[in-house]
Amino acid sequence: MAMVPWRRTHSELPTLRSGMDDLFENFFRGWDRPLSLLGERAWPALDVAEREEALVVRAEVPGMKPEEIDISVYGNTLTISGEKKQAQEDQGDGFYHVESTYGSFRREVTLPTEIDEHKIEATCKDGVLSVTLPKAEKARTLKVQVKG
């Protein structure tokens, strides 16, 4: 019986495994951010700014009325939710391209500092919701003047 020498050949298996690992890593990347499965940005878009006296959260909510928006604060979490309904005249045929956003939304923001929950104010004007969250007295920066 003749012996056939064993030769190590390049295997495609490690390359396939590496490719599958990359596929899964890329698929689940960014799921800690509020993105949809289609890669769209979360709605409504939020801006959070910290001022000396307060935190200011702005949300783009075009076409919504103030009574259609719910705002709540529990602990250190601000929740903005609501539902934008599709207008009756938009339900007909003939649309070539639609990018308007409709449906329920819920956005939660973890607040970086303690706030005075009794002084929170919210306004909605020209499609922009603005929530002002005054900082609690103990969370404000105390400036000390150095005497010479």
Secondary-structure topology with pairs:
Blueprint: H1 13-28, E1 46-50, E2 54-60, E3 69-74, E4 77-84, E5 103-110, E6 121-125, E7 128-134
Antiparallel strand pairs: 1-2, 2-7, 3-4, 4-5, 6-7
Summarize this, please?
This protein is mainly beta.
Note down, in words, how this protein is organized.
By secondary structure, the chain is mainly beta. The protein has a domain at 41-86 and 102-139: Immunoglobulin-like. The protein has one helix at residues 13-28; strands at 46-50, 54-60, 69-74, 77-84, 103-110, 121-125, 128-134. The strands form two sheets. It has a four-stranded antiparallel beta sheet with strand order 1-2-7-6, with no helix packed on it. It has a three-stranded antiparallel beta sheet with strand order 3-4-5, with no helix packed on it. The longest helix is centred in the N-terminal third of the chain and has 16 residues, at 13-28. Residues 32-38 have low confidence and may be disordered.
